[in-house]
Amino acid sequence: MAYDLEFERPLAELDKRIQGLQRKGDRLKADERAQLRSLEQQLEERTRQIYGNLTRWQRVQVARHRDRPYTNDYIKLICDDYFEMRGDRRYGDDRAIQGGMASIDGKTVFILGHQKGRDLKEKTECSFGLTHPEGCRKALRMMREAERFHMPVITFIDTQGASPGLEDEQRGISQAIAENLEVMPRLHTPILSIVIGEGGSGGALAFGVADRILMLENAIYMVASPEAAASILWRDSAFASHAAEAMRITAPDLLELGLIEQIIPEPVGGAHRNHLEMAETLKAAILENLAELERLPMDVLLEKRYQRYRNIGAFATEPVKAGSGSNR
Fold first, then answer.
1. Which pTM value belongs to this model?
2. Which positions ≥6 away from 106 have C-beta within 8 Å?
3. What is the per-residue pLDDT across 59-102, written as a single tens digit (0 to 9) for each?
4. 3-state SS of the chain: helix, strand, coil percent to 5?
5. Coil, helix or strand for 198?
6. E-assigned strands of 59-206?
């Protein structure tokens, strides 16, 4: 796998030297074998150092990496059994949203999320992960089924946002998002949402009203992309890196702000370096959180979910001193 991000150039140079030695195979001399082991150790240490000190803009690039695992990758690696559900029973099937009934270590759940697609054909089929109205409605259909059969819901969030097309507006994309936002807080079953890549705008919020929100270490969660924010604030998308720093959209930022409950660590070099290891870590986090949520009585679960969102944005002001003339 190539080191193709700008900040990975030092890693690319080390990797090139390693591959040059590895191509010799059995023809490696003793000193070359020692050099190979040293280079591999340097590569791992340098990778840990770089990925342990990423800027917010660099995390944005990792969250968007083309080889990062998507919803279908996790479903294949995590689930013992899986039955896909399609269609919203109103208009059609949105391939940007995929999911269905699944079994994880014998526990039956409804699992769904955004799918961006790998090659051009799949990306086109999935609209690059941009949510259509029928995708929101398909997801809501699955959530209602989960409630009916007392199964927990797991949502994987990975989208730049909802589809902005004219036809999507005509079919009621805003209403579809709003309906999800209205129903999910009242859903009588545990809901666990995980941001696995980028969570953008209403396309992400329609799947993120949950009892707990988890984020992968290098995922991002935002009201607008850094490029869009830069275009608004500085009228130039070239300032996207400045916008990313100002918006505080990374997992550590959101954990500090109390908007998420947990950060799931990624393999060295990001989730795209080792899909299997990332899936195993994610699976463990899912089972742990679901076990805790399922122990709560339903009335307590719903009250905690309500209070979770009531407390977002809470702030305190200093008491106004008498005669200070302040209007605060």
1. 0.89
2. 80
3. 999 999 999 999 999 999 999 999 999 999 989 999 999 999 99
4. 50, 15, 35
5. strand
6. 81-84, 97-104, 107-114, 153-159, 191-200
